[in-house]
From TrEMBL:
Cellular localization per UniProt: Plastid, Chloroplast
GO biological process: photosynthesis, light harvesting
SUPFAM superfamilies: Chlorophyll a-b binding protein
Main localization of the protein described in the UniProt heading: plastid
InterPro entries: Chloro_AB-bd_pln, Chloroa_b-bind
Record-linked Pfam families: Chloroa_b-bind (PF00504)
Presence of keyword Plastid: yes
Taxonomic lineage: Eukaryota, Sar, Alveolata, Dinophyceae, Suessiales
GO cellular component terms, semicolon-separated: chloroplast; membrane
Alphabetic keyword roster: Chloroplast, Photosynthesis, Plastid
Entry protein name: Light-harvesting protein
Amino acid sequence: MMAIIGMFFQDGLTGSAWGDWANYTASPLRAFENELGVQAPVGFWDPAGFTADGSTENFARRRQTELKHGRISMLATMGYITPEITGKFPGYLSPSAGLKFADVPNGLAAISKVPAAGWGQILAYMAFCEVSQDQSAGTPAAAGDFGFKVLTASDPEAKKTKLAAELANGRLAMMAIIGMFFQDGLTGSAWGDWANYTASPLRAFENELGVQAPVGFWDPAGFTADGSTENFARRRQTELKHGRISMLATMGYITPEITGKFPGYLSPSAGLKFADVPNGLAAISKVPAAGWGQILAYMAFCEVSQDQSAGTPAAAGDFGFKVLTASDPEAKKTKLAAELANGRLAMMAIIGMFFQDGLTGSAWGDWANYTASPLRAFENELGVQAPVGFWDPAGFTADGSTENFARRRQTELKHGRISMLATMGYITPEITGKIPGYLSPSAGLKFADVPNGLAAISKVPAAGWGQILAYMAFCEVSQDQSAGTPAAAGDFGFKVLTAADPEAKKTKLAAELANGRLAMMAIIGMFFQDGLTGSAWGDWANYTASPLRAAREM
């Protein structure tokens, strides 16, 4: 009511309910609308009116404070989270006091445990950060640039992007750490303890179908806040029906696009072939009345052919079709849980298809119409593979710069090749064994004495590392890798990996990219597993409860 009155007034006064921002040239907000931290869709947002005076000095002072608070909050937030995930440092925090890192609790409880000398070091570091730079107005440090080029960059645009991201992350961290402090002070833990919430109405539903990791029981709208099992069962019955209809509707959009339509006539009397009926919403006006009658009759049959009153199998979604469910209770539970998840996805999918179809006439849109998309520049590049196509969720190529794309591709190739070598370096010795003889005769070190994985780092002699680094340097400097050269595109003249035939070379290089991407994921997983357990493979003897035990021992 307030909104519409305001719109009427604004529209009657200016001819538009939105006004025209271009007319507000004297607004003090104009001074700050292009500053870092102004992000879509909100734009420049200052509901408290701190910038209403238009003072750039005050804005810069507040921005400097915001950056510091954000950075401290990010460190504090990670300080809560990291020990929970990775554990604490080994050894002693204070040998003289016999205090181990493991003895210091996480969160607010640590305040009283850290020795005075520890707090002194923390405060000394904070003071160093404050006084080691000139932070007076107009200096780089006043704008948050302390010369750490890992966090910022020499390139002005890259630095702007990173600082904008830092501001956004800092704002999020400020909210997060306050929430953690509040929760920690209230319950003794930043995470709370679900076991303490015995009276929560959510307890009634936490073991229901559809409760899935990592979210668990999720009801942001509070439909189950009353704890009523009857209401929950009724909504679950409705959710199942909507999900099933949506799955059928979604497949009804997709299937004709992939398999084509039925041969022959939908309505011989009307001379209407299946092929004459368009896909999607346009089919509504083409299907004869008798066709809609059959659809409605089948829906009515599904509704009345079963007793769906509360407590019946049909009310829980079991209509006796054992292809969809199962006679075995556990198998049935698994299948019905999968059906719920698929139905939820289908409800989102079909609404998106309806919207796209109603807006453009097709549920898929028409890629041919997006002629100005910057993605057009890269859709035929190596590494674009079915079924995803050109995939850049982080938007690295949104600027359409072929130079930036080529530079990133060159880096991707190198990382992929190193990762493939590293992955094979983990795997090969496990399968084929190690090379016979000595790695270092002078040190009496055999190849067999060098452990596999990360443990090898401390065993390889300095001369060995020198050879590795020398070979890496040779690969870098033995070819001209400047933009536009074959080496910049990954072709170093090794025709075993590429080929003289352009098409064969393209196929091999595309395969290399795909394998390199897989290897980058693989080697990170191996490093993590190796660092955590001492082996990239773990220790099979420890997995006594694994279901694979049964299959392996048969």
